[in-house]
Amino acid sequence: MAEPKNLDVIMQLIMHGGDAKGNAIEAIEAAKAGDFALANEKIGESEKALVEAHHAQTGLLTQEASGDAVELSLLMVHGQDHLMTSIAFKDLAKEIVEIYEKISK
């Protein structure tokens, strides 16, 4: 079986998306424990990981826009799904941290 054409980019989507989600989970855990400085630091780390994932994704979009079709594979779908889920999770984590912060006052 041949390796997908953009495997390195796909793995970046999965890796950075996973880092983003993991940091968002840690942010919620920190907020639950009352450590809002750490919670906000973890949200920031989540956002940085998403920026890295977006850079990888932008490369694929640029490739496609220039007429070089991006190969669709199950790994590509998984990478994109992982990224979008991580974005949604980070957004929800920010809200949850804010709620914990408000109710702790």
Describe, in plain words, how this protein is organized in 3D.
- This is PTS lactose/cellobiose transporter subunit IIA.
- GO terms for molecular function: metal ion binding; transferase activity.
- The modification Phosphohistidine is found at residue 78.
- This protein has 105 residues and is mainly α.
- It is built from 3 helices and no strands.
- It is elongated, with a radius of gyration of 16 Å.
- The mean pLDDT is 93.
Core attributes:
single chain; 105 residues; mainly alpha; Methane Monooxygenase Hydroxylase, Chain G, domain 1; 3 helices; 0% strand; elongated; PTS_IIA_lac/cel_sf; transferase
Low-confidence stretches: none
What is the CA-CA span between the terminal residues?
A: 57 Å
Task: Label the overall shape.
Answer: elongated
Structural class: mainly alpha
CATH architecture: Up-down Bundle
* Count of spatially separate domains: 1
CATH class: Mainly Alpha
CATH topological fold name: Methane Monooxygenase Hydroxylase, Chain G, domain 1
In CATH, what is the homologous superfamily? Phosphotransferase system, lactose/cellobiose-type IIA subunit
Mean pLDDT, to the nearest integer, reads: 93
SS summary, helix count: 3
- Report the β-strand fraction as a percent range: under 5%
Rounded radius of gyration (Å): 16 Å
Order of helices and strands: HHH
Q: How helical, in percent, are the residues?
A: over 70%
**How many strand elements?**
0
Keywords: Magnesium, Metal-binding, Phosphotransferase system, Sugar transport, Transferase, Transport
Active site: 78
GO molecular function: metal ion binding; transferase activity
Protein name: PTS lactose/cellobiose transporter subunit IIA
